[in-house]
Write a structure and sequence with these properties.
Strands 2-1-3-4-5-6 form a 6-stranded parallel sheet, sandwiched between helices. The termini are far apart. α1 (17-28) crosses α5 (139-155). By secondary structure, it is of the alpha/beta class. The longest helix is centred in the last third of the chain and has 18 residues, at 169-186. It has helices at residues 17-28, 43-49, 69-80, 104-117, 139-155, 169-186, 191-194; strands at 3-8, 32-37, 55-61, 88-94, 121-127, 160-163. It folds into 2 domains: 3-166, Flavodoxin domain (Rossmann fold); 167-202, no CATH class. 33% of the residues are buried. The structure holds flavin mononucleotide. Flavin mononucleotide is lined by residues 10, 12, 16-18, 61-65, 94-97, 102, 130-131.
Length: 202
Amino acid sequence: MEQIMILNGSPRAPKSNSKRYAKIFRQYCKMDTAYFDISKSNHLSLCSEMERFSKLLLVFPLYADGIPVTLLDFLKTLEQNPPPKKPSVSVLINCGFLESGQNDVAVDMVRLFCRKNGYPFGCVLKIGSGEAILDTPFRILAIRKIKALSKGVQKGEHKAFKVSMPLSRKMFIKASTSYWIRYGQKNNVTREQMATLNIEDQ
Ligand SMILES: Cc1cc2nc3c(=O)[nH]c(=O)nc-3n(C[C@H](O)[C@H](O)[C@H](O)COP(=O)(O)O)c2cc1C
């Protein structure tokens, strides 16, 4: 029986938004799914697991306008250790900025990997405002598109979907700025500290 392998490529996979998106995908998917976080130590076992699946869904965030290193490193291992029969690859990507189009380059990176390595490309869902949307009333818009993605993946279609919060950029920046300032306050970090490159050392 056909099954979908779901790989979470977020560097913070166990606590990630990607994990929440994958959970919703699984809720609406009628086919059997198996979910795995990509970690530093499980690349080879994921590569050998992959032969059981006809479809692969990569769920990951946009990091610095590209794919996060967690996923990049895994793809390098997969390139050297491909499964005997290659599954079709679909993508569910989310980014922090409002515009879902911010994800385009990262999706192209996965497409290029697929083209170079002989994996059929399936469907893609690009989520903008992905850090926030699930905790707002606009959640329903994201769920609708994840449902559509799951249908597309199951039917073996080649469809592209996108979703974001229906806000103006100005409103989004205002709302997200006050969210991050409050978040900083909760953790005793000021707005000024957040604006420095030293924040990682705190
Ligand atoms: C190091 C880092 C780099 C990021 N780079 C971008 C970016 O270039 N564009 C963007 O829209 N969001 C960016 N984000 C925001 C993430 O894509 C966003 O928070 C996402 O919801 C994280 O998903 P995850 O919880 O599944 O990792 C970045 C976040 C981090 C931590």
